[in-house]
Structure formats: C-alpha cells, structure tokens
Design a protein that fits this description.
35% of the residues lie in helices and 18% in strands. By secondary structure, the protein is α/β, with parallel strands linked by helices.
Length: 396
C-alpha cells in the first residue's frame, strides 16, 4: 500500500485510512486491492453505480469539445438538459448549480424574491424539525438538525420549524411574513423519515389557501431514487419549486433549481455562479436522465426496492429489531439500539459500505441498478455481524 499525506487535508470528519482508487458498478477497490460492496454510493450520488460507461463516455466526449464558455453565454448541453427536465416535470424553468446546498440556497433566495414582489416583503420560510438542506449558512438555518444549532452563530433569520406529518404545527406558524414551506419528502440525514403522501397533499392545499410557495428538496429523493423520476409524482400534487442534486450528476457535481413560471421571478443579476450549467457537468446530467427515465429502469427500481425492504424486514425479524422506513432504494433499518456505528465499522472491515445517519439506524442508498445478488451479499454480511455481536435475540 502507498503511504499517503493524510495531514494535508483538513480534518473535518473521521475517515478510515483506506484510499479508494477504482470503482465499477456497486464495487470500490482501495489501494491495497481490497474490494468493497458499496451501499452508500456517495450518499445516493452514484445513481448508476461507480464510473458507469454511459457517464464516462459523455464526459470524455464533451471534454474534447468544450469545458465551459462561462455562464454569460449559452451552451448546448445545459439547454438540452434544462429542456429535458422541464418536459419530464411539472416545472417551467431551470437554474443549474454545483451542489444541493447551492440549489437550496437558490430556492430560498427565489422564495424571498417572490415575497418581495408579490407578498409585501414576506420572507419567512417554514421548514421542519429533523430536516437537512445543506451546509451554507442559510441552508443550515433552514435545516432542523440539532447539531447545527450552536454552530456559526448568528444564523440566518427567517426560518420557523414545524413537525413532520403534523399539518396543525405548520398552520400555526403561518403569519403575514410567511412566504413558503420547504421540506424533504423523505428526511434523509435524520434517519429516513418519510412525509406521508397525505401530509404532502395537505401541505399543498394549505399553501395554496394562504398563497404560499411549496418547496420540495428532492436532492436525495429525486432522479428515480424512490421509483418515480421525482418523489412528488407519488402524491398527485406538485410543488412550486423543486431542488435536485446528488443523483442528477451520477457522480459529478451538478444540481438544479426548478420552478414554475409563477415562481420564476429572478431578474438579471439576482442569481449566478461561475461554473453553473457548464457543458461537461450537464453532459453527464443528460446521460443520467436518459438512463433513469426509461420506464423499465424505474420499474426495476421499484421492484428492487421492494426486495431490499423485504430482506431487511427478515433481518429485523430474525434479530428482534425495529421497522424498515423509506421508499424505493432509500431505506433505513431501525436497530432500536445505539449500535449503528459499530455495525458500520464491522461491515467496512468485511468489505461492505453502510451508513449510520443516527446511532440507532442504518441507511441504505445503493446504486439504482443494484442487483439481487448484490443485495443478498449485503444482507448476508449484515446478518453475520448481528449474529456474531449478539446484538439482538434471534426469533426465527
């Protein structure tokens, strides 16, 4: 194994010493040639797995033509991707960004601009306890993550927190300064807690009744993750603004802010970004959208998600654990005990990458084209760890 200069990187999170050098599909290899089955996939980023040929080919072809002409000019891939997103969604216009946090920051700015133009300067946005919208100051302020509360004070003002799936808690926060309601359809970082379809429908009715914008943060749920191209399609309603990230680039930094014509109120100079909508990232986005939007692909995501859910439920039953939460291929297993970090560490040693969003839960975000055999391999590893640890009593 190579000796690496670890100290040159800022120490912002605990990382194992393994250095990954290659990826293909659901697998990664480190510089010691050890193979890992990846059920994290960059936190739901690599929707087609590691280094899929369709994305690699699109990047290589575009790199030979044009990297970026500056966002002061049009470029062909960004125009094509924007049009494709509009044609396949309930929205009319698209602004491209580099990260989910940047897209969410744009959504916040767009809502406040709308409030200044149409609602007498209203600027407050109702978000939710347990929500996560990014790491800029505004998106941290919009988030309901407890660990963020003491950080980088003072926060950006104007965000009130309601309780997920409690419509009364939203309604009581609405006042003359309220301009929008913003949420993840499934709260990922807090442990994969879904908003019910009924709650989302109630939110749509409530926001329409009060003339408010409804913002869906689909950074993690979008691009086929829940079996529909976008999660809102499960509900029979559509928000006014939606943000995408993670899976839209399939492994490269790309995000998007989508809005209806009514909500699209930016004027020249209000919003921008040096690399936003650059051709090479948008070429990757086009490759991803073309693949993920195939009917058979989304059908397979639904079927594979049901299989993974069923297998996790069997593990839970064997070991006396809790329920399985989520939708499609964004799932969590409730461990009922604070043992998730230990399981993640043991799985890593065994060559399987898992994620613990909370100490008592595991989150599963495999590639959307994960196979049945790969699911079986992960389940066998998890089952063996639970059995060896005696973490819970076998009942079957």
């Amino acid at each position: 194994m190579t000796t690496h200069p670890y100290d040159a990187l800022m120490d912002i999170t605990a990382r194992p010493k393994a250095v990954f050098v290659r990826g293909a599909g659901s697998y990664l290899w480190d510089d010691g040639r050890k193979r890992y089955l990846d059920f994290v996939q960059g936190w739901a980023v690599n929707c087609l797995g590691h280094s899929p040929p369709t994305i690699a080919d699109a990047l290589a072809a575009q790199a030979k033509r044009l990297l970026t002409p500056s966002p002061a000019f049009y470029n062909e891939p960004s125009l094509k991707l924007a049009q494709a997103l509009v044609e396949n969604s309930a929205f009319d216009q698209v602004f491209f960004a580099n990260s989910g946090a940047e897209a969410n920051e744009g959504a916040i700015k767009l809502a406040r601009k709308y409030g200044s133009l149409h609602k007498g300067g209203a600027f407050e946005i109702i978000s939710f306890e347990g929500g996560f919208h990014g790491r800029t100051l505004a998106t941290m302020s919009a988030s309901g993550k407890k660990a963020f509360e003491p950080l980088f004070e003072p926060k950006v003002a104007g965000f009130k927190k309601a309780k997920l799936n409690d419509i009364a808690s939203v309604e009581k926060l609405i006042n003359a300064n309220t301009v929008a309601v913003m949420l993840e359809p499934i709260q990922g970082e807090s442990g994969v807690w879904p908003a019910t379809d009924r709650f989302l429908q109630q939110l749509r009715a409530l926001t329409e009744a009060h003339g408010l914008l409804l913002i869906f943060d689909e950074i993690q749920t979008g691009m086929g993750r829940t079996g529909k191209l976008f999660h809102y399609e499960h509900t029979g309603i559509a928000p006014d603004i939606m943000t995408l990230g993670k899976g839209i680039g399939g492994g490269v930094p790309l995000a998007a802010l989508l809005a209806t014509e009514r909500a699209s109120c930016f004027e020249h100079g209000d919003q921008g970004g040096t690399f936003n909508g650059n051709p090479i990232m948008c070429a990757a986005g086009l490759a991803v959208l073309e693949e993920v939007n195939k009917p058979d692909f989304l059908k397979a995501v639904t079927e594979t998600g049901l299989l993974l859910e069923s297998e996790l439920q069997k593990v839970s039953a064997r070991h006396g654990l809790g329920g399985v939460r989520g939708r499609g291929l964004l799932l969590a297993l409730d461990l009922k005990l604070p043992i998730a970090p230990g399981i993640v560490a043991q799985a890593f040693e065994a060559g399987v990458l898992l994620n613990a969003p909370q100490v008592d839960s595991l989150r599963f975000m495999p590639a959307l084209n994960v196979t049945k055999s790969e699911i079986a391999e992960m389940i066998d590893c998890l089952d063996a760890i639970l059995t060896k640890a005696g973490a819970a009593r076998r009942v079957a």
